[in-house]
Write a structure and sequence with these properties.
The chain is 38% helix and 24% strand. By secondary structure, it is α+β, with helices and mostly antiparallel strands. The strands form 7 sheets. Strands 1, 2, 3, 4, 5, 6, 7 and 12 form an 8-stranded antiparallel β-sheet that branches. Helix 16 runs parallel beside helix 17.
Length: 755
């Protein structure tokens, strides 16, 4: 049987040290021994130091059944422990192996049961640990901030474990660490506040800290013990991620030696499945602690992680409350809806308090209002111009503006901004000035791993190395960002109300001007339709008298001139009468009532019967509906449409006018499915080109000359205005030489409108 060790001897270099396979070192620390069992209880792995603890060597037991070496009683106890409800990573198995008492931690790794045995510790009085824990919980309830709690945990852990130094180590977003709290011997130099680069704890180490939350090095000068196995597989190895005894990376060991440390205990602080920090315990000589003390120390870490959200929330809530109060004060002000109110808003101190800004600016209609420490106007405009292209959401926020806008570095007056556009080139911006800060690193962070003629080493110097950080502001907290967003929304609403108020005032003034103009127009209409009628009547009377004196002598040159004057006066009088009719039609929809259009038609035919006969016209009419309308307007409407058909009759055929109507309400699809009744007037006259259909209903619009067809050009415009007064509409269709049709639509519901 060939036996080999599984020691990992891969070379670690500067380029791959962050990928060092620390989970499979193939070695353990010597304060215990390790056995690996297969599912059938065959001993497949064993450390070479087993003979230092019991009278048997690794070569003697490898390949044998556990029962053969240690007896069936021990095997049964291990079997019961593995299959019990006992929390195995908390309470190790106390067992006697070949006459010696051990405490055994057991876990499973890729189908192998890994047994890690340490000599049984003297029974520590658990009551002492319990008493200390109770005292700690009482003191914990008296702390308010997270930092106070961490300081208490550091003190309590040191008291329970007896280590020379206990540090609460907290990571930032990039896993750079900071000694957040510390308790140490009075003669030791404190590390509180020192920062450590993320390279001190590489990625694979952080992953192991998440998987295995307690790590112990009893003697930093230990000689690693190799693990042996039966050589029956290629690349055979054993994953020791969950191991208590796992040997540590040589680089990490040297790192601790450079710090002068003799033993360590490290407890992971896991928060939301992320490595939030560590409890790092250092001793300056050899030190081991019992499982009970390990458990108590681990419990200290859980006190922190269970309180992180609560304590951080409490710290943040105190400040968030001030922000909320400032926001409520700002939004409670009942300021006038005028642009001048921005002068009052910008001076309110709460505008800065709500997000703890150093300055604020509001831009409205290209005018910038400012308060506090703010950039120059041209700097603000330059930033906004670029920010509009940079922002991906409703707003833009940064603590280091030079990261996104390198060319704005020269604007040293601000480094952090919260920018909210408010539409129409308006915006509000909060500013924070540059905060120059010093970070105290434990040694140069750029030299965390060095290489010399002797190989790869961690840095030797841990002397304080100061780094000055410029070009950035303090961090914008989420509650500050939220408060800024809420107020920006409120301000946007106020600006819109100012614009609406101004528009309303403008329309009010325009309405008054329009009202005055309409009054003047009514006076002008009265003059044009009444006062001008009298001179025209006199002109017609005088010309008629003179024409009578001429005795109808068409050879007399004055006769023709007098006749033209008489006709012009007649046309002008007719035009004035049509204008009067048009201007008298107002919105009288409230006076509408149920009207039988059949009666309207009969009344119209009776009035124009003589004209119909003179033109040899035929009028055919279907049964017409009842509609909501005004009687005298409907009569005027029918008169205008029928007279229009008689006027534009074709000289080549007898005039036929057909009036058809809907017998049931119909839906007009283009007009939002409104139910209506329609009446169509169709004739076989001269028609018109359909491109002129819309212009037919405009005042004074004519398609023919006055010599061809007399009239004022108001008739169909009058018809359109009549239909608008009853909420209806009118359309025209025509073909040149074939005829025309006019259709009028009446809404069935008096509340509807087809306009």
């Amino acid at each position: 049987m060939n036996i080999k060790d599984i020691v990992n001897r891969d070379l670690v270099t500067l380029t791959n040290c962050d990928q060092e396979p620390i989970h499979i070192p193939g070695q353990i620390q010597p304060h215990g021994f390790l056995i690996g069992l297969t599912a059938d209880w065959t001993i497949d792995y064993c450390t070479s130091n087993i003979s230092s603890f019991i009278e048997v060597s690794h070569t003697q037991i490898l390949g044998n059944k556990f029962e053969t070496v240690f007896g069936s009683a021990s095997q049964q106890r291990i079997f019961n422990y593995i299959n019990s409800d006992t929390v195995q990573d908390v309470f190790p198995l106390e067992i006697e192996l070949l006459g010696k008492k051990f405490q055994v931690n057991i876990h499973q790794s890729d189908g192998i049961y890994v047994l890690e045995a340490e000599p049984q510790f003297d029974k520590q009085i658990l009551g002492d640990v319990y008493t200390q824990t109770i005292q700690f919980v009482t003191q914990m309830n008296n702390t308010r901030s997270l930092k106070d709690l961490c300081a208490l945990v550091a003190e309590g852990t040191r008291e329970i474990t007896g280590y020379d130094r206990v540090m609460i180590y907290r990571f930032d977003e990039q896993y750079n660490g900071e000694v957040y709290a510390e308790s140490c011997r009075n003669d030791l130099e404190p590390f509180l506040g020192l920062h450590y680069p993320h390279t001190d704890i590489p990625v694979q180490a952080r992953e192991l800290y998440i998987r295995n939350q307690l790590r112990l090095i009893v003697d930093i000068n230990y000689q690693a013990v190799p693990i042996f196995t039966i050589d029956n597989k290629e690349h055979k190895n054993l994953d020791l991620s969950l191991s208590i005894l796992r040997s540590t990376s040589p680089i990490h060991v040297q790192y601790l030696k450079n710090m002068g440390v003799g033993a360590t205990l490290t407890i992971s602080l896991i928060h939301h499945d992320r490595l939030w920090g560590l409890i790092a315990c250092h001793h300056y000589s050899q030190k081991n602690i019992s499982p009970a003390v390990r458990l108590a120390a681990k419990l200290q870490g859980q006190f922190i992680t269970s309180q992180i959200d609560i304590r951080e929330s409490n710290d943040e809530n105190i400040n968030a409350k001030k922000s909320i109060e400032a926001l409520e004060h700002l939004t409670a002000h009942d300021l006038p809806l005028a642009e001048d109110s921005l002068n009052a808003i910008i001076r309110m101190p709460e505008l800065l308090t709500l997000c703890n800004a150093g300055g604020v600016s509001i831009s409205f209609r290209n005018k910038i209002y400012k308060n506090g420490i703010t950039p120059e106007d041209h700097q603000i405009k330059a930033f906004v111009e670029q920010a509009e292209h940079k922002r991906s959401g409703e707003f833009y926020v940064t603590r280091k503006i030079s990261d996104d806008f390198p060319d704005l570095k020269r604007f040293s007056s601000f480094a952090g901004v919260i920018y909210h556009p408010l539409g129409n080139s308006n915006h509000i911006i909060w500013y924070r000035p540059e905060t120059v800060s010093e970070i105290n690193w434990a040694g140069d962070p750029e030299k965390s791993i060095v290489k010399d003629e002797k190989g790869l080493h961690p840095r030797n110097s841990f002397n304080t190395w100061k780094q000055v950080v410029k070009g950035q502001s303090s961090i914008w907290r989420q509650y500050e960002i939220n408060s800024a967003a809420k107020y920006a929304h409120s301000l946007h609403h106020n600006l819109m109300m100012i614009l609406l108020s101004e528009e309303e005032e403008k329309y009010r003034l325009q309405s008054e001007i329009l009202k005055e103009t309409n009054s003047e127009l009514e006076n002008i209409n009265w003059i044009s339709t009444h006062d001008l009628q009298e001179p025209l009547r006199k002109i017609q009377m005088i010309t008629s008298k003179l024409l009578a004196e001429k005795g109808g002598n068409h050879d007399d040159p004055d006769f023709d001139s007098l006749l033209r004057v008489s006709k012009s006066a007649s046309r002008m009088r007719e035009l004035l009468q049509d204008i009067l009719k048009y201007t008298r039609i107002k919105n009288t929809r409230e006076a509408a009532e149920k009207i039988d259009l059949n009666q309207i038609f009969e009344s119209v035919i009776e009035e124009i019967g003589e004209a119909v006969s003179e033109n040899n016209a035929v009028i055919e009419c279907e049964k017409l509906p009842e509609v909501q309308a005004i009687g005298f307007l409907m009569k005027q409407l029918f008169l205008n449409i029928i007279q229009n058909s008689l006027k534009y009759a074709s000289p080549n055929r007898s005039s036929v006018i057909k009036i058809t109507a809907s017998q049931e309400p119909v839906i007009i699809k283009p007009l939002f499915h409104v139910y209506c009744n329609w009446v169509k007037f169709s004739d076989n006259g001269i028609g018109f080109d359909q491109i002129h259909a819309d212009s037919l209903f405009k005042v004074f619009t004519r398609l023919h000359t006055q010599q061809e067809y007399t009239g004022s050009g108001i008739g169909l415009a009058l018809c359109k205005k009549i239909m608008q007064t009853v909420g209806g509409t009118i359309t025209a269709e025509g073909k040149v030489g074939e005829g025309a049709s006019i259709t009028i639509y009446f809404p069935c519901d008096p509340e509807d409108s087809l306009i």
